[in-house]
């Protein structure tokens, strides 16, 4: 260990670290633009300048001490950049002395010489490093009286990323990301001096599957999200910590909502799962259907060929009576790798109560659509969880293939499926019309719902509490960001924006659409009640707490303990879950 | 109030003999009325006669329209600063050099408290306080002014724009 002194306080640090890393571990913030914990060191922005001194040594290596017995420190003639200077034993670092403050102000003034005054029209405003530092580390005035260098605006770098060349401060974070993390060198600089421009290589676009991470990385508003462009100012939205449902990786994300509508997703740091990144597909394709006008707004029963909206009491009674009507061996059930652990658990419990043993869930493996960065071939977020809570157990009842065969042959007459587009699988679509009874949890109208006799409107992953288990066995929390009919943002502990906090019922922005959709554990518990079961759940957490006592794999967990990076399942998943469909 | 904190109670003096007579007081009143009748009038004959406020007056906020388009770039700063949450702005992209414009700009005049913060914060001098003070509605919906009611050509707002340049 090396002992270093930062701003007069001594710390024991790992000698392999740089000053900025050591300081960060101690909670000391050194301003920086180009440095990023997961990228190589570029050292080009000079924002991280600090005053560094080393102890003076005699020829024999012993430390020189003054009359009072203190080490004599020789400060470097110039300031050093904290992001590339390694720490050394006895090193003294000053981050707040007038010399350093002066340098920070000078760097800010320099960076702002050619930076346009674009904040009012810039999507980054509100979460911009340059803007924040202009308040914290700059005098707020410029001595530069000449015309700024003009560069192209609205440059399409790729299908998903827009560049404003004027705003770029040439930190090279985006360039390094493409080279080092996405492993697709697509960006580079041309020209010199104040005419430097970021651009793609000739004939190349910024179109790698991770390209949008450059938007989050960019410390200014040079790179912006084409999909989210001008949709909202960042301070108008609430941000909810949740998990991406695009694949079995389960990247940690923030879901940004305004007026009960999801506007964007951004990645959230989790060193166990996704580091700072997420893929473009996950970012763009996992939330739009939640806002869709094809959403199912209430439970429905098919009467005279048409699905009619009914109340929850009626639908629960109907499902219970239908389940009693068939022989147990004629009923099959499908859990879901898109439903939470709690939902699958409650569903399994309901099926046990109803005596149904033919239960499995559909796999969503796209062989080949994977990489060694984040993207997994399993396109469902909770396959491991569905297994862990026992949606399918070898040797008991029919599996997925058996169920398909049973429906084809007519031995299975009734199917009860959780919220999933099962008709997407052609073999399933072919046999669905053969069923006498098809009970379906659904959140969106699609081909599958056209076959359903009973539709239980279901809350999407954006509307409920729960946990997903990713392919590594990491159990992670999802939280509601969009309100359904039965909850209120304020009363149910949602994250809230200023508009949510101060709006009243007759304000336009509190009038976002609320659907009468419910989490599956809740509907299952209600149907179990209609079947005469003694158990009943009132919250997702209650289901989870029961799981921690009944399932070995979840022992010792709680929502509180999961709230950070999540926790690993106790039993390691040895067998591959990639059962092809 | 006395220094020891107790209220000092004063009793009205009894009326004098003439006051008690009542008739003298009646005549005093009539005299006052008659003198007023022959004095010059100072009542404004509203609504026939309307008041034209000075440039410093803060009437309802309006959007400045220049060369047929709003100056507003939909930055949302006015909506953010508005203490009454009266403003709602939805931005979108435009072909003009300013890149953004408000597809939707609404002020809820029932919420607005005429503080003028929106005008003060606007980086584009795109929203200013007008001289209009006549605001009445039959319903809550009517009180929500959209771009159709908010856009006013810059020429009509000359007074205020000049005032702002001079005193801000
Ligand atoms: S575009 Fe952004 S991330 Fe890339 S070099 Fe410029 S400022 Fe840095
Ligand atoms: S890698 Fe998977 S979990 Fe991560 S963002 Fe992409 S789709 Fe979502
Ligand atoms: S005058 Fe004040 S209350 Fe009215 S819209 Fe402007 S900021 Fe809001
Ligand atoms: S502050 Fe000005 S430019 Fe910004 S949205 Fe309001 S009126 Fe438009
Ligand atoms: S952060 Fe050190 S030079 Fe940019």
Structure description:
The complex is a heterodimer of chains A (581) and B (168). Chain A is of the alpha+beta class and 581 residues long. Chain A is built from 17 helices and 24 strands. Among the domains of chain A are: 2-96, Roll (Ubiquitin-like (UB roll)), CATH 3.10.20; 107-225, Alpha-Beta Plaits (2-Layer Sandwich); 300-461 and 517-538, Rossmann fold (3-Layer(aba) Sandwich). Chain A has a seven-stranded mixed β-sheet with strand order 16-15-21-20-19-17-18, with helices on both faces. In chain A, strands 1, 2, 3, 4, 5 and 6 form a six-stranded mixed β-sheet that branches. A three-stranded antiparallel β-sheet of chain A has the order 7-8-11. In chain A, α8 (312-325) packs across α15 and α9 runs parallel beside α15. Chain A is elongated, with a radius of gyration of 29 Å. With 168 residues, chain B is α+β, with helices and mostly antiparallel strands. Chain B has two domains: 2-37, no CATH class; 61-167, Alpha-Beta Plaits. Chain B is 26% helix and 19% strand. In chain B, the strands form two sheets. In chain B, strands 1, 2, 5 and 7 form a four-stranded mixed β-sheet that branches. In chain B, strands 3-4-6 form a three-stranded antiparallel β-sheet. In chain B, β3 and β4 form a beta hairpin. The A-B interface holds A 119-121, 125, 153-154, 229-231, 233, 235-236, 499, 502-503, 506-509 and B 73-77, 79-80, 85, 88, 91-93, 98-100, 106, 108, 123-124, 140, 144. The structure holds iron/sulfur cluster (4 copies) and FE2/S2 (inorganic) cluster. The site of one iron/sulfur cluster has 13 residues of chain A, from α6.
């Amino acid at each position: 260990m090396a002992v270093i002194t930062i701003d007069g306080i001594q710390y024991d640090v790992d000698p392999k670290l740089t000053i900025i890393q050591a300081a960060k571990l101690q909670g000391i913030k050194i301003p920086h633009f180009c440095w990023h914990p997961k990228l190589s060191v570029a050292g080009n922005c000079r924002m991280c300048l600090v005053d560094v001194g080393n102890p003076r040594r005699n020829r024999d290596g012993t430390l020189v001490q003054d009359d009072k017995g203190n080490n004599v420190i020789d400060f470097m003639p110039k300031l050093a950049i904290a992001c590339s200077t390694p720490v050394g034993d006895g090193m003294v670092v000053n981050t707040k002395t007038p010399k350093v403050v002066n340098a920070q102000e000078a760097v800010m003034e320099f960076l702002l010489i050619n930076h346009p005054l674009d904040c009012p029209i810039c999507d980054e405003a509100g979460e911009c490093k340059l803007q924040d530092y202009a308040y914290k580390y700059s005098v707020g005035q410029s001595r530069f009286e000449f015309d700024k260098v003009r560069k192209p605006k609205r440059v399409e770098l790729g299908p998903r990323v827009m560049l404003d060349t004027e705003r770029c401060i040439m930190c090279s974070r985006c360039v390094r990301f493409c080279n080092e993390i996405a492993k697709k060198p697509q960006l580079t600089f041309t020209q010199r001096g104040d005419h430097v421009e970021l651009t793609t290589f000739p004939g190349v676009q910024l179109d790698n599957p991770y390209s949008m991470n450059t938007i989050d990385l960019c410390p200014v508003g040079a790179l912006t999200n084409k999909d989210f462009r001008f949709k909202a100012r960042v301070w108008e939205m609430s941000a909810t910590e949740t998990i991406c449902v695009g694949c079995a990786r389960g990247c940690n994300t923030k879901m940004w909502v305004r007026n009960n509508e999801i506007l964007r997703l951004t990645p959230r740091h989790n060193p166990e799962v996704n580091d700072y990144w997420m893929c473009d597909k996950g970012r763009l394709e996992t939330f739009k259907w939640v806002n869709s006008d094809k959403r199912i707004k209430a439970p429905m029963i098919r009467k005279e060929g048409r699905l009619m909206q009914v109340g929850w009491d009626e639908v629960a009674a109907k499902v219970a009576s239908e389940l009693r009507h068939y022989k147990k061996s004629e009923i099959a059930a499908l859990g879901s790798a898109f439903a939470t652990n709690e939902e699958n658990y409650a569903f399994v419990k309901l099926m046990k109560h109803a005596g149904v043993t033919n239960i499995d869930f559909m796999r969503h493996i796209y062989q080949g659509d994977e990489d060694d960065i984040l993207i997994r071939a399993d396109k469902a977020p909770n396959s491991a969880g569905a297994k862990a809570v026992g949606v399918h157990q070898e040797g008991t009842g029919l599996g997925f293939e058996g169920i398909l065969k049973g429906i084809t042959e007519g031995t299975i007459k009734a199917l009860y499926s959780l919220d999933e587009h099962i008709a997407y699988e052609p073999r399933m679509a072919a046999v669905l019309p053969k069923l006498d009874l098809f009970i379906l949890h659904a959140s969106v109208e699609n081909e599958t719902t056209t076959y359903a006799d009973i539709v239980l409107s279901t809350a999407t992953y954006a509307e409920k509490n729960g946990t997903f288990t990713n392919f590594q066995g990491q159990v992670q929390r999802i939280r509601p960001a969009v309100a359904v009919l039965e909850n209120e943002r304020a009363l149910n502990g949602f994250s809230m924006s200023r508009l949510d906090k101060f709006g009243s019922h007759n304000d336009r922005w509190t009038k976002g659409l609320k659907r009468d959709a419910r989490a599956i554990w809740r509907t299952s518990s209600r149907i179990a009640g209609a079947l005469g079961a003694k158990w009943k759940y009132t919250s997702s957490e209650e289901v989870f707490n029961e799981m921690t006592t009944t399932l070995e794999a979840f022992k010792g967990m709680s929502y509180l303990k999961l709230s950070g990076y999540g926790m690993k399942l106790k039993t390691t998943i040895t067998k591959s879950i990639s059962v092809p469909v | 109030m006395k220094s020891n904190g107790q209220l000092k109670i004063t009793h009205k003096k009894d009326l004098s003999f003439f006051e008690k007579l009542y008739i003298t007081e009646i005549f005093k009143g009539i005299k006052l009325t008659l003198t007023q009748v022959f004095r010059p009038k100072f009542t404004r004959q509203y609504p026939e006669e309307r008041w034209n406020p000075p440039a410093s007056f803060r009437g309802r906020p309006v959007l400045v329209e220049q060369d047929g388009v709003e100056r507003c770039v939909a930055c949302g700063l006015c909506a953010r600063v508005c203490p009454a949450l009266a403003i709602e702005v939805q931005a979108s992209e435009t072909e003009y050099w300013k890149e953004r414009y408000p597809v939707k700009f609404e002020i809820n005049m029932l919420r607005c408290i005429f503080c003028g913060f929106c005008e003060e914060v606007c980086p584009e001098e795109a929203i200013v306080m007008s001289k209009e003070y006549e605001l009445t509605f039959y319903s809550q919906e009517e009180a929500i002014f959209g771009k159709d009611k908010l856009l006013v050509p810059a020429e009509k707002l000359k007074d205020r724009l000049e005032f702002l340049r001079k005193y801000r």
